[in-house]
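Residues and backbone
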Amino acid sequence: MASPRFSLHRTSALAVALLVLLGLSVLAAGSYAAEEEKGILADLISRALSTPASRVSIGAIDGALSADATVRDLKIADRDGVWLSVNRVRIVWRRLALLQRRLEIDQLDIDQMDMPRRPVPAEAPVSGEDQPLLPELPLRVDIKQFTLARADFGQPVLGVASSFSTGGNAKLGPPSEGLQLFLDAQRLDRPATLNVRLNLVPQTQRLDLMVNLDEPAGGIISELGNIPGRPPVKLKINGSGVLDAFNAKLVFDAGEGIGANGDATVNREGAGRRLGFNLAAEASGMLPDVAAPVFAGTTRLTGAVLFADDGAVSIQGINLAAAAARLDIAGALSAAQIADIRVSAQNTPNTEGGALAKDVRIKRFAFDAHIAGPLDAPEIASTLDVEDARLPSVSLGRLEANLTMTPNGSIANTSTLLNLSADARVKGLELENPALAQAVGREARFTARGVSTTRGVIDFQTFELKSETLSAGFKGRAGRAELRGRLEVSAPDLARFGAVAGLALKGEATLKADLEGTPRSNRFTAQIDAAADRFATGITPVDGLYGGALTLAGGVRLDADGGFGFSDLRLTGPNASARVDGAVTPKSADLTALLRIPELSKADKRATGRAEIAAHVTGALAQPDATATISLRDASLLGRPVPRLDVVAEATNLRDAPDAHLRLDGEIDRKPARGAVHIARPKEGGLVIDGADIAIGSVTAQGGVALDPAHFAAGQFSLHAKNLDDLSALALEKLSGSLDAEVSLAHADTRQDAAIKANAEKIGGFGLGLDRLAADLALTDVYRHPIVSGSLAADEARFGGQAISRVRLNAKGGADASDIALSAAARGFNLDMRAKVVAADPVRLEIAKFEATRGGDRIALAQPAAIVIRDGGADFRSLTLSLDGGRVTIDGRAGSKLDLKALFRAIPLSAGDVFSPGLGLSGTLEGEATIGGAPAAPTGPYRFRISQLAAPQTRNAGLPPIDVDASGRLEGTRTTLEATLKVGQSGALRVSGSAPLAASGPLDLGLKGNLDAGVANRSLSTAGRRVTGAIAVEGRLTGTAQQPSASGSATMSNGAFEDAILGVRLTAIHARLVAQGDHVTIENASAVTRNGGAITAGGSIRLDPAGGFPGDIHVRGQNAQLVRSSLATAELNFDINLSGPLVRDPRVGGRIDILSLDIPIPDRLPGSLQPLPGTRHIDPTPTAAARLAIAAKAKRGRGAAAFNAALDLTIDVPGRIRVHGRGLNAQLGGNLRLTGTLAQPDPVGAFHLISGDLRLLTSDLDFTRANLTFAGDLSPELDFLATTQAGGASVSVAITGDPSDPQFVFTSSPDMPQDEILSRLLFGAPSGQLSPTQALALAQAAAIYSGGNDALEGLRRSLGLGTASQSNNPLSKFLGDRVSLGVHTGATAAETGVGMNITIYKQLKARGVIDATGNVSVGVGAEHEW
């Protein structure tokens, strides 16, 4: 684009420059010849309009020194040609008036001026361009009449092509005369007018002003203002009066929502004048959608400014108030021209969360600026503060910025310099595009320090941009006319830019570039020095050649004329090097490129040898030609020798009509490889591939095809391959099988015919397979009246893990129709179709049968249907499909435009298994859709309802069936959605917004609803857990389906959690999670334990599934009783931090203080009480079945844990740990450091005995060792040892194992059997000397400490103390079958004793018991077995 300063200021000065001709002639005293005068004039014009690339030509000058001068055929051109021409300029004036410093022009006429475009900017600064254009003007200027008969402007100049004529007069004189302007202009191509009347007389201080503009729709003002709809525009300004009492009114109208009206006054107030104005405007209609709501309704501009007679100015207040923003200006300018002015702008909250516009919300926006100091050398300091801003494509948490500018002199002097200082910081940055968000990061800093000229050229000492992913800096000079300096960029982690590049980038990179250029003309050069370490792209061949250490060095340039070039630019990697050198310009091209690969195996292990790719571009920028060669030497491909292989391409006119000849020559696997082909794209359109003659081993391909601009094809092509393995080397894939195929294409006028013959056997390669193919098909008049004849048979086709055992297509063509039969079978799937193609006008496809089945599911045509093919589309008339009792009906048309209506009635979702086995959906679909628009951008409303929706994922999670009620509208590439999801009786969620129809588009969905937390109990209850509470969800989902970005919150209130097995019970659970972008923040989370303790949590999680959802969560507990069960009861203080990939291998660190830990050792049942071997559960309840499944899974063992946290915990005991039960009573203390992983913890330290003893009935033992350690699964392990002297022996008791199932081991010195040890320990005597009472006590001890110990079980059996149901007491047998006597053992004395059972009659029995305490009980009862 042209510089406005050049094209407007200098162009308008041309006429004035011509007027100076006479003054120059007078100064020359008439002594110059005509040619010299013409040279002076040409030199003046050249100075006014020149750039290094501009040319000025004048056809003729008549009467250069007379009072009536004419300039003819004035033309100004730049490097792109003439941009301004004037056919004739005539000036009638009074030459001698210049001696009195007056310019008097009687007549100034311009006949025709043409300006088709703006001039091309100068590539470099123009010498003297900032000097005054003309010498000092005379004291008086009087133009009595001027006319411009016609001026034609091209569209690039004013936005629309336009033609004008104008005329008027002007006078500028001393204060007594003032300024007068009379101007009338009208468009010649449209009815638009502009009238200006201006009269200002300083001596009388009177001002009269009138401006009247009336322009129709599509005019220049609406185009320049970019007013939507380009409406008609009317503007009226009227003002009149002396400057002590002046009034003016303005009216502007540009259609609905765009307009302004108001007034301004100037009145005398004491020793000064007061300017007041009040303007009301409607501006929302001319603003972009994103900004329009900020200025919705009426925007008002008001103000008052006091101008003192001594030159001082007081800005009492200038205020701009809009619907969602406000601007205020206040301050003063002293008589000495010292400024103190403040400017502030801020948002005006119009919602609870701040200022809201369409797709924009800003919680806080504040801009402040202070202008202080002399007016011609002011110091400017400004700040900007933005908080919680959300825009359509970006949001940020906080932006803080400041800028100061301090001049070292008057800004009116071009030599003055301005010291600049700028800083900015962004936090919480979130981009809608996930790839850019990952590349940019969430925080960024900007710093700039420099010195600027008044022309805007800045010398930067510091210019830095730093983010989480990038650091960039520039030092040097920058401006529109000049760029010179060094740019340095570093990226420590290229993986953050992988999504932007579409590659799996890795490594780090640095770049240094010396820059030079002229930005305003788009001319740049750069000398580059870049390097990357540990570089990778995820593309195996590229990484093999360039992975690791990579360097890029050389020169790059971009020319102002669109040309470009490279100066020895080299890309060097460990195993390849590339070089580009040369240039392409509008006049010529000479560019070479060379890639060398010394060893191909570095790119692909299936290849060896060396390769080279060379290219040479010639011609010119507009029509480049090129040659390229790919060469392989001493190579092998897939183990096949390739001593030489060359591919040569010669192409011409690459931009407009590329035409290329390719040749192949070499040897592959000791077989010749030869070939040639011609490829062209004619300028008028279409494609030509002909002259193909290729032979590689047994494989030959010949023929060609031409596709005309109307897409009709003609030609023949054949492929014969006795053994496709001959192509394996080139494909780098083992191929097999044989193939013979011929394709013929012909057309005449609008008729297109095609014939295909193919036979193949044992085809294999690239994961595809085909045992047999036989095809012989002929198609005539394909586009108008198609007739199909022939057959196709395929057996055992394999692709994508799927197998189709059989495909049969038979077509019988007649004069007017073709009968088609299609059948297929694959792994339980069967397809059968019968149809007729009727070659009528229009063509009809009459479907008699369509049926697809898999197992018990079936999709079939409910009734015969006809599809009409016409105008490139298809008409459907009540096409009805039956899906397992449901129906889909389609009516309408599909083609370049869609007009379809679909009805869905009682569709079982299980029918989806027909085409996707194992999909496993259940539920019923009802709905309808009306679809219009284009196939690539459908439009129209839809609604559907799904009852009792369930999927394998929801079933596994224990969720109840879901009811979905949804509606929306297709809108091109997107769809709107309003849906309600009811989750059983547990609440509902509402989803609204829009989503892309393609997976790659941006999401914009809102989610709101309430759920009962108990919805999770169906899955939790199998493990003995239960949760309650209310969950409120409100949020928004953006980003893409692959990389979603969330915002909003989820709140849980009045929650509770209970684990019956561990005894965990949490109440008063309250939590709030807030999502912003790809981060979820735990704003607060708290719960109360059963003893009144407290648990709190906070932190954040990043929504990155591939990264394991990395985050940082802090959990604190105070006096929290987390466990209360038969295994243990614990009260803790803790401070734990979880960081890293939270669902994979996070780090768990922190401190746990055990306030109290109570570990009871339970009194257990006899060790003989075990489930009967071979017990089988018949028809278990769902809960029992789930528990049995868990037990079976545990029995089978577990694989590697998906979640394996790294541990770094310190466990201390400021309180106590108590272990008690079965006579054991011990208190422990100490500390523990827990490292390793959750799967393999590594405890360092243990808990040791503080005090304790062991009482075995009548004996007391002292502990010599007591440790509490932790096993691999963090369950406590006992390690206790107690000793005493008893019965002449030294006795030791070891207690080890799990507290819930401890092992008691008795040893002695001298060594004795364990039953003897127990007898001496309890009674100080051998077991053979025990009394009956002591024997009962010994039995009681055996029951308590047996725990499955074989030695103590033997003691019980030796005493005849079996279980109640399995007594071996000889006395019970002696009394007969009706009377039984037995000794019962239990965990306490009251449970141990002698019992007698007497059978009175069948199931009627009497029973008596005497326990070890002497208590007696008698009873009568009945028994019945079933």
The first helix runs from residue 4 to 19.
